[in-house]
Protein: Probable GTP-binding protein EngB
Organism: Halobacillus seohaensis
Amino acid sequence: MKVNEADIVISAASKTQYPKEYIPEIALAGRSNVGKSSFINKMIQRKNLARTSSNPGKTQTLNFYIINEKFHFVDVPGYGYAKVSKKERAKWGRMMEEYFSEREQLKATALVIDVRHKPTEDDCMMYNYLKYFELPVMVIATKLDKIKKGQRNKQLELIASTLELDDKDQLIPFSSETGEGKELAWKKMLEY
Ligand code: GTP
Ligand code: MG
């Protein structure tokens, strides 16, 4: 897909701030620092519209981006970062629950997993949580540029089996460095 326009709409800390328009949304999910914001930037060909960082915990709010006046990407804060206080963890939980359980505009989620590692317990929990809300999930196996070609299939199989991936859900090898997987990710998203 050709992206002509991409802009931030709002950084929302609670649902009163979500955009009111009834246009479809695709949300991101995944561990801190896994590459959620980088995924958005690569998909829309903007260097740093979604702010990224080499330190975990960069994204702290639900950030709504409007793409070609047609749909929203919603960037979310990651989970699984050890240095987060109990209080902050609870706040994260409330923010996610409020969004994922009630947002009618939400059509699908892109769950971003690091292709180099076996999905963590948190990843499995997140996947099950999204399935509980009957949301279609695309699993984006990112940082593909960081493994050898010969390791790809083994890692992808490990991800699918650990998550117990539903046949309906697509697993997409991806790299925000090289752009590999971008076409397939767009194809899937447009289906939603
Ligand atoms: P939080 O907002 O903290 O939850 O993190 P995030 O998931 O949004 O991660 P972010 O996109 O900020 O990326 C984290 C780091 O990983 C940055 O240093 C990125 O440059 C790097 N990164 C992300 N995707 C890729 C990729 O596909 N390949 C490589 N080599 N590096 C990547
Ligand atoms: Mg981020």
About this structure: Residues 6-191 form a domain with the Rossmann fold fold (CATH 3.40.50.300). The pocket of magnesium ion (ligand 2) is lined by residues 36-37, 58-59, 75 (CB under 6 Å). Strands lie at 6-12, 25-30, 62-67, 71-75, 106-114, 137-142, 171-173. The longest strand covers residues 106-114.
